[in-house]
Every structure is written in C-alpha cells, then in structure tokens.
Amino acid sequence: EVQLVESGGGSVQAGGSLRLSCIASEYPYKPYCMAWFRQAPGKAREGVGYIATDGRTSYADSVKGRFTVSKDIAKDTLYLQMNSLKPEDTAMYYCAAEFNWCPPLVDDHQYMYWGQGTQVTVSS
C-alpha cells in the first residue's frame, strides 16, 4: 500500500513562507505524477500544483508565481514551497500520487493515493 505522509504545516502571518514536505513509501515503482491539493473549511478540494517524472509542472492560477512544487528523487520527497502567503491560502494541504499520468488539477478524483494532510493557517 502506497503511503504518503505530509509535514511542514503551521501558522504564519500574511506575506510569510512555509515549505511542505511529502514523503512517499511502499510504492511498487515511482509515481509518474505527484501533486498538492488543498481544502478550506466549507469549500471543495482544489488542485494547487503537480510535478511529473520529467519535471514538467502545472499550477493553479491562484498560486502561480507564489508556490513552487519540486521533488527530491533520492529522498522520495515532494515539496511545496509557499511564498507571499495570503489568508485565503488557509487550508488543509494534501499530497497525492498517480502512477500512470498527470491528471489535470481539476480532476482530483483521478489521483489514486492521498496523504492525511497538514494544516496551513495564514493570519492577516
């Protein structure tokens, strides 16, 4: 069973930065695509960004220029560097993995494996 474990969440003031990590383990082969999603209370889950095995990335318009998805292959770790944080970035952040392709960020149901989430709270 593939396991994804996020960490790095916390509370920060607007304008600040956080870096989230997601360690993947117990997978039969490396995922083709790893992504970050988030869900705020009372709102639907939304895609934040993904990175494919070839390094190709995609981001939601709301985070372009502020967030960066990266990975350390040797450490089997996915990162989300979040800069210039805004109160509207407050949410539970989840990492997800898909082994065969990179589904569009709007198609969260296409991602097969999910972590348990890490909370990010941005105060004004």
Q: Your description of this structure?
A:
This protein is mainly β and 124 residues long. The protein contains no helices and eleven strands. The termini are far apart. The relative contact order is 0.32. The mean pLDDT is 95.
Keywords summarizing the entry:
single chain, 124 residues, mainly beta, 7-stranded mixed β-sheet, 11 strands, 50% strand, globular
Please tally the β strands and state the result.
11
What string gives the helices and strands in order?
EEEEEEEEEEE
The dominant shape is: globular
Low-confidence stretches: none
Rg, nearest Å? 13 Å
Overall SS class = mainly beta
Share of residues in helices: under 10%
Q: Provide the β-strand percentage band.
A: over 45%
Distance between the termini: 40 Å
Assembly type:
single chain
Calculate the mean pLDDT score and round it. Answer: 95
Largest sheet: 7 strands, mixed
Task: Report the total helices.
Answer: 0
Concise account of the structure shown:
The protein has 124 residues and is an all-beta fold. It is 0% helix and 50% strand. The protein has strands at 3-7, 10-13, 18-25, 33-39, 46-52, 57-59, 67-72, 77-82, 91-98, 113-114, 118-123.
